[in-house]
Amino acid sequence: MAAAAAATSPADKERFICIYPAYLNNKKTIAEGRRIPIDKAVENPTSTEIQDVCAAVGFNVLLEKNKMYPREWNRDVQYRGRVRIQLKQDDGNPCLPQFPTRKSVMLYAAETIPKLKTRTQKMGGSDQSLQQGEGGKKGKGKKKK
């Protein structure tokens, strides 16, 4: 069995590394699956965001939409998905020299996801909704008095 695993080349899709959104999520603890420091992690990343970031830098990327992280208890669509990335070439050398390990890929993705256009637009929209929410809370407080 081990000989068969060693015989497969790193370019095979089964040999691509897996990155689940939980690995980069700052809302998760290490026990819940986070794999990078919390100060570098991102708030609720999605598999498509990870795919976009990795494809933009030049990785061979495969998105598996229906896969789920086993430790994830929430079955929402937001938490679904797994990204597979070709880290090494046939000869065993990294595809991109600046990313020799899976951890370097995860840290890069976590650093770049907040800079995505979809994230920056959401930030602007969430500020407005927060202001509306605060106004609603004040109104509820007045009604109680």
Explain the overall architecture:
The chain has a 3-stranded antiparallel sheet with strand order 1-3-2, covered by helices on one side. The protein has 145 residues and is mainly alpha-helical. It is globular, with a radius of gyration of 19 Å. The longest helix is centred in the C-terminal third of the chain and has 28 residues. The protein is 39% helix and 8% strand. It contains 4 helices and 3 strands, in the order H-E-H-E-E-H-H. About 8% of the residues have low confidence.
What attributes characterize this protein structure?
single chain; 145 residues; mainly alpha; three-stranded antiparallel beta sheet; 4 helices; 3 strands; 39% helix; 8% strand; globular
Sequence-ordered SSE layout with sheet pairings:
Layout: H1 2-7, E1 17-19, H2 47-57, E2 61-64, E3 82-85, H3 102-112, H4 117-144
Antiparallel strand pairs: 1-3, 2-3
List the total number of helices: 4
Shape: globular
Q: Give me the strand/helix succession.
A: HEHEEHH
Rg from C-alpha positions? 19 Å
DSSP, total strands: 3
- Which stretches are poorly predicted, pLDDT < 50 over at least 5 residues? 126-136
What proportion strand? 5-15%
DSSP helix fraction: 25-40%
Class inferred from helices and paired strands: mainly alpha
Quaternary status: single chain
- Strand order in the sheet with the most strands: 1-3-2
**Largest beta-sheet characterization:** 3 strands, antiparallel
Distance between the termini: 72 Å
Overall pLDDT metric: 81
